[in-house]
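Incident review: delayed structure delivery

Summary: a single-chain prediction request sat in the queue longer than the usual turnaround. Root cause was a stuck worker, restarted by the on-call engineer. No data loss occurred. The affected request and its eventual output are reproduced below so the record is complete for anyone auditing the incident later.

Affected input:
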Amino acid sequence: MTHKRSAGLLLFRRTGQEQDHGIEVLLGHMGGPIWAGRDTGDWAIPKGEYGPQETPRDAARREFTEEIGLPPPEGEYLPLGEVRLTSGKLVTIWAVEADLDPALMVPGTFTLEWPPHSGTVQEFPELDRVAWFSPGVAEKHLMPSQIPFLERLLKLLEG
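Output delivered after worker restart:
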């Protein structure tokens, strides 16, 4: 059985502040009715699935544009490795230093039958908002399966 693969970009910017590693990271809040009104553990690194015809890095750049609606940042892509989820999906993330104004986001959309079994198909944003968080706050909001990427970024920047 072939497991799905997903790739994404974790943007970070330097704040010049001593506390909380002197950086902030950009996370996206999951869009759609299932995630509405939820906050803790419901933010994610912008990412998405890809097939065998695409490299993980190319997929990460494409997915950033699809989810945020802006071109992926240029700069050095720092590999944060992979995490295999309990579902079997393999997630690969790169960190890149860049600044981005969350107000400029134009989210990609997906369709979903909502309410379930209603026959009504609606369109929802993949991410309903993005925001910058200090690492300590990001850890509280980030989906638990993605916390290792944040920890790896902090280690990389400390080294």
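Verification: Strands lie at 5-14, 23-30, 43-44, 47-50, 77-84, 90-97, 109-113, 121-125, 127-133.
Action items: add queue-age alerting; document worker restart procedure.
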